[in-house]
Amino acid sequence: MLGLLLVDHGSRRQESNQQLTVVAERLRALKPDCLVAHAHMELAEPSIAVAFAELAQRGASEVRVLLYFLGDGRHSREDIPRLVAEAAARFPQVAWRVAPPLGPHDLLAQLLLMRGGFNP
Prior knowledge:
By secondary structure, the protein is α/β, with parallel strands linked by helices. The protein is 43% helix and 19% strand. It has 4 helices and 4 strands; from the N terminus they run βαβαβαβα. The chain has helices at 14-30, 48-57, 74-88, 106-115; strands at 2-8, 35-40, 62-67, 95-98. It has a 4-stranded parallel beta sheet with strand order 2-1-3-4, with helices on both faces. Strand 1 (2-8), helix 1 and strand 2 form a beta-alpha-beta unit. Helix 2 (48-57) crosses helix 3. It starts with a strand and ends in a 5-residue tail after the last helix.
């Protein structure tokens, strides 16, 4: 079974962390055939290790890590792949990969216009 692990940076503000929970719920609605979990890279729980373990224990044979990050920086290139690899080492039967961050992408440009009151 495919597991989707949605990851953001994490915040000290609980309200900010709650937004990732909402996005994860939307992913569940869009992909009901997948297991979905969310994690914060740092500053908040659940951690990547905890969420990866949850997916593995629920039966995921593959985990795709979806980055809730705009840019391709150090966290998306180094930190998160390292944290996922460390978490995955406990579950060698589970394949995994980290998807690229969100932008730049035409859909994000359209979303920005929509948020700015334009009808793209």
